Amino acid sequence: MTTERLQSVSDLLVDTEARLKVGQAAGAKLWLTGFSALDWALSGGFRSGELVLVGGAQGTGKTTFALQVMLNLTTTGHNAVYFSFDHDNHTLVERLIAMEAAEIAGAMGVQLKGVREAFEVRDRREPTIEGRLSETEGGVEAIEALREHGQRLHLHRSKSSDTDVGTIRDVIVKLQEDTGQIPFVVVDTLQKVHFDAPILLSEDDRVTFVVEALKDLTLELAVPIVGIVAGGPTSGKRMRIQDLRGSSSVAVPADVVLIFNEKFDVVARHHLVYNLASAERFRNWVVMSIEKNRNGVDRVNLEFEKAFKQGRFDPAGRRVEEELVDERIFVE
After folding, report:
1. What CATH number did the domain enclosing 105 receive?
2. pTM reported for the whole predicted model
């Protein structure tokens, strides 16, 4: 019954005080992303009960960002679950190994290409992963680290034919029961989440219903959910919040919306024409725009340097100093 959800403010204050007396947090729980500039802008990171949408054109690093946040969280004792509709689990593990190796050995850490080659069945004499990575920088140490804290990082091979919001809920509840922790959740991508409807719906409408259902789930289970949204604007434009796939209301239930763009494509022309050296450097950076943020500042443009050969970003980041434009006005 809906009346069971009714609570007076007086009762809520009593409950809050009871939580504080036993050392429990009464407010929203925070999950640090490990991206310092983003954590600052979000006033501490992602929050329980929060739905975060991450959009951007293909290749801008949405999946890389989500995996890196999850790896950062599991190394600090948190649990996380990744619902993957677009990547098989072995592909994700390869990326996690390269990320971990970079954390251990820096720029000299084994590259993603090297990890993938080690997973190929070319040398049947060496059956262990450590053995195949023994001559790489940070590879063995990365495997050892993942064997330790990887038990807190869960990968769900999701299917658009049967993985709906109800399935996502069941997995989250099971993990919480098994671990005693609220997990951090990533859904990649929202367009692929199964949705049964009595009538035939367009993709835009299905995505909107999925987003609304996931928002309800964040509040019910007090979890943060990061949903990756595929697609982007027409060629030659900077992607903005209105370009997210789904109906015009898709971003309304979200608490935070992050949009990824290639920096080279969105800086103003004068930064490109009068300093060609800088123009080339811009290709190595991605702009992450906080276009919506209910718990802090928005309309903030941050930039992070790509280290995609190692399957990651440099997590330090900074605010964008250059002027950005909506339209790409520089053409090679």
Report:
1. 3.40.50.300
2. 0.90
